[in-house]
Amino acid sequence: MKKHAENPLFLFVSGLILTAVVYFVSIFMGHHWQLNSSIVEDSVLNHGTMLILSILLILAFKKQVKYRIAMPKLDQILKPILFGILCAVVINMVMNIISVIVTGSVQTHPLMKNTTFLKNFLSVFILASIGEEFLFRGFFQNYLKPLGAWGFKVFKRRISLPVLISALTFSAAHLVLLASGVGTMFIIRILVFTFVLGLIAGYYQEKHDNHIFAILVHMAGNLMGLVSVIMMTMSFTAQNKPDGETFELTKQGAHYVFTASINGTADATILVESGIPALLADSAYVFNSGFFSDLTLTPTGGKEKINLGGRVYKITHKANGTVRIGNSTSFNGDIFVLSNYDYGNYEMAVPVMYLHNDLDKGSRIVNLDLGNQRMQMLSKSSLRAKKASYSTSTMNTDTYMGMFAIETSATLDDGIKPRTLSGNFLIDFGNPELLFLIEQTKEVQQFLADNADLELHEAVAPNGQIVGQYIITEQSQLGGITFPDAVVVITKNLPLITTPGNIGLKFFEKNNAVFDFDKSLVYIK
User: Fold this and answer.
1) Crossing angle (nearest 10°) for helices 184-208 and 74-103
2) What three-state secondary structure class fits 267?
3) How far apart are CA 167 and CA 169, in angstroms?
4) Entry pTM
5) Separation between Cα atoms, residue 348 and residue 283, nearest integer Å
6) Is 195 within 8 Å of 168 (Cβ atoms)?
7) CA distance 255 to 313
8) Are 182 and 107 a contacting pair, CB within 8 Å?
């Protein structure tokens, strides 16, 4: 012992090695053997082995460790137990709230999954508390007693070096949970909790020279930690609204469609759109199917028309109301019934910004995953969990008929030099290309004048009519994302559009996009 006291480094390193050997042997036992018991968790093998080996260590080094355990007086244990409870409640609740704010969820401890409270009580509250305390305070902290001359004060309480080292080691040991796939916020919560709990347990053990105080503090902390996590998880789950339904998309020509029931009756093939002001439906299909029998369809007299990508359709009837699409999604807004609207290919077109998730108080959050050909209605809580890994842009409706757009820039490199056009770009799922430039806008006119050397190619329709122009680029950048060998179309077939460009499907085929139309935000990944 004298040799150890004269060599603090040897004392620390030898104690740490012995503690680590017991700890990892115990982990090995817990991972490679299973009890398959209905009463206790398999982790009892881990902590049971830890307890047995720790006791053997204490006995083997009894001259150095000077271990002491005895039943305390009742009035002596109330304060340590109270601090153990406060540590668990305060730290777990604060860290859980931060976790909800940052990630949108509270992650459950791996031991709490697919288990019961009784099994956790026996495994975590009793055996884990005792096994870990025998190793980290019963053996390791007592082994380091000769280093007790060093320390510092916190809130007028002296924390010795052995107490600090054992608490840090105890906390660091929980990094093994990373192997179970836990998240960053979960591991931070556990590290903070176990470090503070270790300081309290070690302080009271040293103060009374009695290991029972450390065990009681640990038990109190584990019990209240278990209860607080269960309560927070239940509270969050109660508020956590489920995602809405997922629609499987099919590429039809250059566009995307999905099939869903309308108002609980027959199915319709529906075009995914964003550059239209209303739900569009073919007149023959509407009146043959009776989809909108509960809506008041007002005739227009055939005098109103709508231009869709250069094709003009007569609006025969109008309505405003709610249409149920699928099981838990609703469209709410204007409805235009069109004459001869692509009947046979699809019966309807829906602007996704007016879709509501009926399972989430009508939220308008749409996950468009064209790479996997699906569209899903997300809940607000699910968005909170996802958005941290996405880049965020603000949308606006300073556009023709209030359609959603993004302020950004497009850089076109035709092999001669990069050329940049900045402005407000409409989000247009009806555009099959990467980008349409709107010829009549002043921004595009100025862009073409400033880049007179840009080679423009004529876009010719099957009937031989010139319908626009296009630019072949070696690469284009749109919203900071690069697209090699992109074709950018210049069109004059959208005369009412006031924005310089329309961002099309090829942008979203490369990127997963989540649209929060309630908050006018789009998340791109």
Assistant:
1) 170
2) strand
3) 5
4) 0.56
5) 10
6) yes
7) 19
8) yes
Q: pLDDT tens digits for 61-78? A: 998 898 999 999 988 999
Cα 155 to its chain centre, rounded Å, is 39
- The Cα–Cα gap between 176 and 469 comes to 60
What are residue 322's DSSP bridge partners? 332
Q: How far, in Å, CA of 303 to CA of 45, rounded?
A: 80
**SS3 label, residue 176:** helix
d(CA 278, CA 239): 32
Indicate the burial class of 517 (C-beta count within 10 angstroms; 0-12, 13-18, 19 or more).
Answer: buried
Site of tokens 């050997």? 21
Tens digit of each residue's pLDDT (9 = 90 or more) over 502-518: 999 999 998 999 999 99
Q: Give SS3 for 117.
A: helix
- Number of Cβ within 10 Å of residue 431's Cβ equals 25
3-state DSSP of 19-37 = HHHHHHHHHHHHHHCCCCC
List the one residue out of 46, 48, 58 whose CA is nearest residue 19: 58
Residue tagged 């009926």 (tokens): 358
